[in-house]
Write a structure and sequence with these properties.
Length: 190
């Protein structure tokens, strides 16, 4: 991939990922960027969500269509496309499971949607947790299960991080499935 391009308005050389020309201040034509490049983040599992959020608000402030009311139709269109790209990238990176799937894809690991999950012990554990969460009768029981789930989620995230570091993508994928189930149970419990 090229590292530079010319501004469509003033023809000055700018960075390929630049959204705005530093010379003339004009919003640039959208280019295909992965979510990590949108926010200038390294392609890794561990991200600082506060930094992600700060970059998100900064980009939204820069690109929001309301800032381009008096701009050309072309820049208005670019603003809409960029804003959509930023929103989608933020959604992917802000969600652990989506971020894992994106990283697996970038690593060349093929996720088969037709392949069923076969780890019986994990499925039994998930079913047990699901049954416990569905039979909650008091707020104290609910808090106890939420605390238990929080520990399990943190443990799974730690495993996923380790698996990524070791490039064990099949293990990442399997842990991602478990994490997804744990997070859904936790969400449904609230």
């Amino acid at each position: 991939m090229t590292s530079s391009k010319n501004c469509w308005s003033c023809n000055k050389t700018i960075g390929y990922k630049d959204l705005v020309c530093k010379a003339c201040g004009v919003l640039q034509k959208p280019v295909e960027l992965n979510p990590f490049d949108v926010f200038s983040l390294a392609k890794k599992f561990e991200i600082n969500k506060k930094i992600l959020e700060d970059k998100y608000f900064k980009l939204q402030s820069l690109l929001h269509p309301d800032k381009f009311i008096n701009a050309s139709q072309e820049e208005k269109h670019f603003s809409n496309v960029h804003t959509s790209l930023v929103n989608n990238a933020f959604k992917i990176l802000g969600d652990d499971v989506s971020r894992i799937k994106a990283l697996l894809e970038y690593s060349g690991y093929q996720i088969s949607e037709n392949e069923s999950f076969q780890d019986v012990s994990v499925l039994e554990e998930i079913m047990e947790l699901q049954n416990m969460s569905m039979s909650v009768e008091s707020e104290s029981e609910k808090k106890k299960i939420q605390s238990h789930l929080k520990v399990k989620i943190k443990k799974e995230i730690k495993k996923i991080s380790q698996f990524f570091n070791e490039k064990k993508y099949k293990d990442v994928h399997n842990s991602c499935i478990k994490l997804s189930y744990l997070q859904k149970i936790n969400i449904n419990l609230k």
